[in-house]
Amino acid sequence: MNLKILLLLTAGHFVTDINTGALPAFLPFIKESLALSYTKAASIILIFNITSSVIQPIFGYFSDRWSVRWLLPIGPFLASLGLGLLGLGPSYAWILLFASLSGIGQASYHPEGFKTVNFLSGQKKATGISFFHLGGNLGFAVGPILATLLFTHYGLKGSLWFILPGIIMLGVFLFTTQWKIKVSPPAIKAKHLARSGSSAQNLLPMTLLLLAVIFRSATRLSLLTFIPFYFITVLNHDPLVAGKYLSFFLLFGTIGVVAGGPLADRFGYKRTVLVSLGLTPVFLYLFLFTSGMLSLVFFAGAGLLIISSNSVTMAMGQSFMPQNVGMASGLILGLAMGVGGIGTTVLGWVADLFGVPFALQLIFILPLFAFLIFFFIPYPHHIRLLVPNLSRNPKSPGII
Q1: What pLDDT digit, counting tens, does each position of 235-246 carry?
Q2: DSSP for residue 399
Q3: Considering only CA atoms, which of 279, 280, 291 is closest in space to residue 231?
Q4: Is 184 exposed, middle or buried, given 0-12, 13-18 or 19+ CB atoms closer than 10 A?
């Protein structure tokens, strides 16, 4: 495992996902500024997820077939630029445009990043992916509280500060060479792969995995979207309280994702994911019916549980599509999460009709659907993956 490259990629993931975490925290202020309905406000998340997630398999397709390493420095910059311009949007259409620009930055970085990490991680795929996820989840955690603080001091124009990390990360990538990883084309890899069954045999488990990830991502995205509304408009708390809850949710999710990979490598992928999905609704309902520090503890625990399975499901998806690792990454992190984002918009419509508390209670049962679907995935899935030997010869085909 090449730690220097992994650290650089993780830093890029951190900068990219700061913007993803900040966007929901800006929504209540954008809603108030433009007098939007909950449906329109949630639609901003939908547009962001279409551009950041649904189109990720397209970038994954190109990543599997051609060298697109230049996306690694470009992705964090575009993600930061779009979010930074968000506060300057004079109308709803401009807000959607800037959210889309940030989303494209997200979509361009993740498949290439996850593919590179896959080939750096040796046999411990979940552990390597967990480390890469660490950067993203730290970014998620920092984003909400940073957005709230900047809004408090500068108003919506405080979003401009988010461009700075993107510029810094672009400079780091351009003035270093460690990130210039080259992996073997799929046609070459295929010769070294043991057959693990036909594509048709892998279709069912991959489909079930995508469905489970859709419900899990719908839960996470909906919580990030509606928890600020719950604290600010329903409970009439200070916006900083909402930012604190989101940041704790994502910070403990970071702990979960770091722990989830090694635990899955030791105790089994399927068992680890089932435990996390099964316990998440319990913690969410305990959060709703408690108050003060206790509710914060339960909400943070829910974040730890639900996000802990991210790296595990990514490793599983890549094992189902070993010759198309970039595409698998795009499907798991992109398409499935993007479709999950559609559920957020539907729940915005529910919140308009029945109120935010009712929408939250619907959100809390979504992990149970993910649990039931995941239970029927046949796993372990035995397959030999080509692992480039980077330690013996740094000039081997794994590196240029």
Answers
A1: 888 877 887 888
A2: B
A3: 291
A4: middle
Question: Residue 399 forms beta bridges with which residues?
Answer: 181
Where b means 16+ CB within 10 Å and e means fewer, 61-76 reads: ebbbeeebbebbbbbb
Structure-block tokens of residue 346: 């539907």
Hey, what are 297's tokens?
């503890």
DSSP letters, 198-213, are -HHHHHHHHHHHHHHH
Q: Residue 380's Cα: distance from chain center in Å?
A: 24
Q: Please name the residues in contact with 312: beta carbons below 8 A apart, sequence gap of 6 or more.
A: 126, 260, 261, 264, 269, 272, 273
Prior bond of 380 cis (ω within 30°): yes
Q: Is the dihedral of CA 223, 46, 170, 131 positive or negative?
A: positive
Cα distance between residue 126 and residue 118, in whole Å: 9
Apex CA 329: angle with CA 312 and CA 273, to 5°?
A: 20
Residues 6+ apart with CB under 8 A from 30: 36, 41, 44, 86, 89, 95, 156
| pTM summary value | 0.70
Tens-digit pLDDT profile for residues 312-342: 888 888 788 877 777 777 787 777 766 776 7
Domains of the chain: 3-180+199-375 (1.20.1250.20)
Under a CB-based contact definition with an 8 Å cutoff, are residues 183 and 67 in contact? Answer: no
